[in-house]
Structure to design on (235 residues):
């Protein structure tokens, strides 16, 4: 009995050690996290001051925005803030940016690139870039190419093709509305000027989760806009 009392603590210690080692060999279990599941990858560029400087120095960058709920801080922006992070370069020194968007991937060359957030949402809302073209003929071709890719509503496209809006002045802007042909909600605004090479297309990719509900996409496809008063966060 004396031997059992002497070895008792050693046996308990050995048993505890064996259980500890066994638990280490079990798969590590984690609870699903909405932030982790929708966060962008580690190779994504950043839109804080240091990130913008790096994109300029490298001549380009990449943003993984393929999730429809991209946390604002994951791209270097302050969470829950009304903010527009703006990258601008000389027009003859554009940067090349790859955008991995919901259901689509684009590579754009631009000297003006913006990312917008709102205090009412934890997610990145809009990514905007500008593309210049030379003359109205080139602008027509660029709009046709954009329509082929994004698919704008027949009403908005017909208004553009008629160009009645140009009779009121020598310059202005015209909306093509939103398109969702490839799944990504993209808004196009065109800045035009008669008899000038200064023609600019402004694209905005809407990536907040509300734009990707089936009923919202159906309304965008038909009317070229999101439902009036809808919640961009999709709640």
């Amino acid at each position: 009995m004396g031997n059992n009392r002497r070895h008792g603590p050693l046996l308990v210690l050995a048993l505890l050690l064996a259980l500890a080692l066994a638990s280490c060999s079990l798969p590590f279990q984690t609870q699903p996290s909405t932030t982790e599941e929708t966060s962008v990858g580690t190779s994504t560029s950043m839109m804080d001051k240091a990130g913008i400087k790096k994109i300029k120095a490298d001549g380009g960058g990449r943003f993984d925005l393929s999730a429809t709920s991209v946390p604002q801080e994951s791209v270097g922006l302050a969470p829950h803030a009304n903010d527009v992070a703006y990258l601008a370069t000389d027009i003859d020194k554009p940067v090349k940016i790859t955008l991995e968007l919901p259901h689509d991937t684009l590579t754009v060359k631009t000297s003006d690139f913006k990312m917008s957030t709102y205090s009412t949402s934890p997610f990145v809302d809009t990514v905007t870039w500008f593309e210049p073209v030379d003359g109205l003929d080139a602008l027509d071709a660029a709009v046709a190419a954009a329509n082929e890719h994004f698919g704008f509503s027949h009403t908005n496209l017909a208004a553009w093709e008629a160009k009645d809006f140009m009779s009121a002045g020598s310059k202005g802007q015209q909306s093509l509305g939103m398109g969702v042909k490839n799944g990504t909600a993209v808004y196009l605004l065109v800045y035009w000027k008669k008899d000038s090479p200064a023609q600019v297309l402004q694209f905005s990719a809407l990536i907040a989760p509300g734009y990707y509900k089936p009923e919202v996409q159906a309304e965008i496809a038909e009317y070229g806009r999101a439902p009036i008063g809808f919640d961009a966060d999709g709640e």
